[in-house]
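TL;DR need structure tokens for one chain.
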Amino acid sequence: MDTQHTDRNGIRQDATQDEQAVSMPLLDKVVERLCHPSSLDRVWHRPARNAAMPSLDSLREIMERLRAALFPGYFSTMRVRRESMRYHLSANLDSIYHKLAEQILRGCCFACEGRSDGKSCAACEQEGAETALRFMDNLPRIRALLAGDAQAAYEGDPAATSPGEAIFCYPSMRAMLHHRIAHELYRLKVPLIPRIISEMAHSRTGIDIHPGATIGEDFFIDHGTGVVIGETSIIGRGCRLYQGVTLGALSFPKNPDGTLTKGIARHPLLEDNVTVYAGATILGRVTIGKGAVIGGNVWITNDVPPGARISQERPHA
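>> reply
TL;DR here they are.
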């Protein structure tokens, strides 16, 4: 005997009683296996005090609001007039502040799973609000850094017609917008949220910058796809990277129990005005001296002196 029902899209679905009789016991067994502690305990997130997870949709909205606030006129849904700028900016920043405070709180709750220090939810909530306010206080400095990045893109790319074109179109500017914001939250010791913001840009642009990386003024990534910048990288002022560049770790020290040692400086340090061309790989805590030029597709694991020009050896004729 056949049974029929209509799904939520209005499409008729047919199933026999025999099929139902076979499928239900099998699905019950799958549920039982997935709920077994040997499977479940390794992946189950136990939220602290039943707190909600950070919201990806809210964080996307925060980033779009921040982009509109930092670059007025480029990404707003309406024409921005200077005489009404203060009104629109005030309303936007108020919304950003409250939404960000909530997401910081959720990130803190995520990080304190199994916490035993007795810290109250009210204390976490106050900490989230205060951290969000400290972040907001740094927005003028973040804008200044991003304006320098846009100018560096214009000056460093002969195809660029203006800094505004870089702001509106270049993937490196989106990546740096996310990084400058994520890095500030990282400095404020906000859990989880900086990494989410960085990965949003990574998935959109192909540029992977850890929020812990320290990047100086007037930074430009040309093209950008495949660039990787590790957590403890330090990049000076006026540096330029091309596509496919990796600033990575050479090795990963381990603790006596075999786990990786966390929190050590393991990525390169680029001094001011360093240029690294496409496909170059620089690994370990090495220093690339001021004004050095690293050619394409080279592999660097040692310090490079200031002003040096490093390139692949040409084969003998």
